[in-house]
From TrEMBL:
Annotated protein name in UniProt: Calcineurin-like phosphoesterase
Chain residue ranges for the region called Disordered: 1-58
Transmembrane stretches, start-end: none
Protein species of origin: Streptomyces radiopugnans
Pfam families (UniProt xref): Metallophos
GO molecular function (one): hydrolase activity
Length: 357
């Protein structure tokens, strides 16, 4: 597996690690990042939008151009669920973190794309669980591929959708707010500092465009598919945003429309929490989420399986390459972890649901 930029070297070990497992910056000062650190830059001008396009509407395949799609497209073809057609098999993808080559290989092995990165899975359904960027070498390439597949899958009668991860919130914050101070439990912080400390890649920021930010900012936080409750983070923080899936998604989307640094930071902080389903009370926490939002099993990313199992000391995997063979089922079989630890030389997981018994 290719060792891309950021793997094993992107975490600042002098920083305090919060209970979420995300590195929390100390007090920010003018020299904290050194002379080579770059600011977020001014936002790019928004691309022209097709008539009638509403940027806050969710579940529409993409606007914007991936490298493989020279002309920006907007495909309004409804998913099979919305149109009443037959639904294809369901797949989920764990955290990608910029490892584009590993993602292409995993999707190709599952028969979802061809060697030219085009959708060939017909009416199959594909969910990405978030965290497309940071730590790996090509986060923007990952986003472009997901956007492209969203359009192609919808046109073929299937769908490719994605959830909001904490690293999407981190990247949005770094782009919008840069070094603007925000309040944190560890003192004064900024999105720019936190982004760099948690694997932010300058090449991603240089290539980040307004249509990428718009796409990320309208991703859902959670979804229900075939009795699987899909979320990014293994946390119960979702309960703080509403009692239904629609309420939670609307609350997160609405919050991001405010363009408020502290409010976005609060979202980021809550969705970096982890391990809610791991210990003795884990099954109880999982049942609470399922009773509230529906489904029989939670499927999440966020916490790498080796980290979740205590096989490595941190997400940067300095303790050696772990062995990951597939999703990790735990919490009385109520939770499935899908982050195979690609950032620590583990595995990028793409799995069909339901999992084999």
């Amino acid at each position: 597996m290719t060792l891309g930029a950021g793997r094993g070297s992107d975490m600042w070990h002098g920083a305090g690690v919060t209970g979420s497992g995300v590195v929390g910056p100390g007090p920010v000062n003018s020299g904290a990042m050194g002379p080579g650190a770059m600011g977020p830059g001014a936002p790019d001008a928004a691309e022209p939008r097709p008539e009638g396009y509403t940027p806050t509407q969710r579940d529409l395949p993409v606007i914007g151009a991936a490298s493989a799609v020279p002309t920006p497209t907007l495909v309004d073809t409804p998913s099979p669920a919305a149109g009443g057609g037959e639904q294809g098999p369901l797949y989920v993808v764990g955290d990608v973190h910029g490892y584009l080559d590993e993602l292409r290989t995993a999707l190709l092995n599952q028969g979802l794309i061809d060697t030219e990165d085009h959708w060939i899975a017909g009416n199959a359904r594909l969910w990405f669980l978030g965290d497309f960027t940071d730590r790996g070498p090509d986060g923007i390439g990952v986003i472009d591929l997901v956007m492209q597949l969203s359009a192609e899958a919808a046109a073929a009668g299937g769908y490719c959708k994605a959830l909001m991860g904490n690293h999407e919130l981190l990247l949005i914050g770094a782009k919008r707010f840069g070094d603007t101070p925000v309040g944190s439990g560890a003192g004064t912080a900024s999105f720019q500092a936190a982004w760099l400390l948690n694997g932010g890649q300058r090449s991603d920021m240089e290539r980040l465009q307004e249509h990428h930010v718009q796409w990320m900012s309208r991703l859902d936080a959670m979804a229900l598919a075939d009795d699987h409750l899909l979320v990014h983070s293994d946390t119960t923080a979702y309960l703080e945003y509403g009692g239904t899936i629609t309420d939670v998604n609307d609350a997160v989307t609405e919050s991001l429309t405010h363009h408020d640094a502290d409010e976005t930071w609060d979202l980021f902080r809550k969705f970096t929490k982890r391990f809610a389903f791991r210990d003795e009370a884990g099954a109880t926490a999982a049942r609470e989420l399922l009773a509230t939002y529906g489904g029989r099993r939670i499927v999440h990313g966020h916490s790498p399986i080796p980290y979740l199992l205590g096989e490595v000391g941190s997400e940067d995997g300095e303790d050696g390459a772990p062995q990951v063979h597939g999703p990790h089922v735990y919490a009385d079989s109520l939770a499935v972890a899908m982050d195979g630890g690609v950032t620590m030389a583990g595995k990028l997981l793409v799995s069909r649901l339901p999992l084999p018994a």
